[in-house]
Design a protein that fits this description.
By secondary structure, the chain is α+β, with helices and mostly antiparallel strands. Helix content is 30%, strand content 42%. The strands form 2 sheets. A 4-stranded antiparallel sheet has the order 1-7-4-5, covered by helices on one side.
């Protein structure tokens, strides 16, 4: 994660320093895109660490996004349809109005009782600009 943040910071610095050159803007955009893909890959790796998880994407809903300080957040709700308490590990992606990936995070919502719902907050790793939407990419019940 530290390396990804460094790449994002470097990309932003390059973009600010070279705003007069379209080629530099394109290159900085490619670096940010690459960093975003790295964050999504790291999130997927965290999901892969969950043992004995079952697909529970249908149990989980993402609320509207808002800002909290300099981060984008969304309330995520997990509803447990089973007859025993469950934990949820959820990958949430933040996308722009065109559907482009902006960020990805993994959220845990633990101790959801049978037939009940519980919420958690997905918080972006960095500042996101423009209109964003949170989507549930993957959810595991375990």
């Amino acid at each position: 994660m530290r390396r990804t943040r460094t790449v994002v910071a470097l990309a932003a610095t390059v973009l600010l320093a070279l705003t007069g050159c379209d080629n530099a803007k394109n290159k900085a955009g490619e670096i940010v895109s690459s960093a975003t893909a790295a964050v999504a890959s790291a999130a997927q790796e965290k999901m892969n660490e969950v043992k004995d998880g079952v697909n529970a994407t249908g149990d989980v809903r993402a609320g509207a996004t808002s800002t909290d300080g300099d981060r984008t957040v969304a309330e995520i709700t997990a509803t447990n349809p089973k007859d025993k308490t469950a934990d949820y590990t959820i990958m949430v992606t933040f996308r722009d109005a065109d559907g482009n990936l902006l960020d990805a995070v993994v959220l845990n919502i633990d101790g959801v009782e049978p037939g009940k719902s519980k919420t958690g907050t997905a918080r972006s790793n960095r500042t996101l600009s423009g209109a964003t939407k949170a989507e549930i990419t993957q959810a595991l019940r375990h």
